[in-house]
Amino acid sequence: MKTTIRVLAIVTCIFMLQGCIHKLVTVPVKVAYKTTKGVVKGTAAVVGAVIPDGDDDEKDEKKKD
């Protein structure tokens, strides 16, 4: 009888705390994703500014022709 009550109590707690556990896991992951996404975009912009790829030169050559 005691085992049945304990199992039922544990199962009830699991269902009641499921939303809390979901938030504890997903919120930090979302924050890390957004931070990393911003850093990657910023790095790509800096690299593009420092190392030009020559697109402007190609456009100038086409205009001359």
Count of helical segments? 2
What sequence of helices (H) and strands (E) makes up the elements? HH
Large-scale geometry: rod-shaped
Low-confidence stretches: none
Q: Report the strand count.
A: 0
Largest sheet: none
Name the average pLDDT: 76
Q: What amount of the residues lies in strands?
A: under 5%
Structural class from helices and strands?
mainly alpha
Radius of gyration from CA coordinates: 28 Å
Helix content: over 70%
Protein name: NF038104 family lipoprotein
Pfam families: DUF6726 (PF20487)
Organism: Acinetobacter genomosp. 15BJ
Keywords: Lipoprotein
Main traits of this protein?
65 residues, 0% strand, rod-shaped
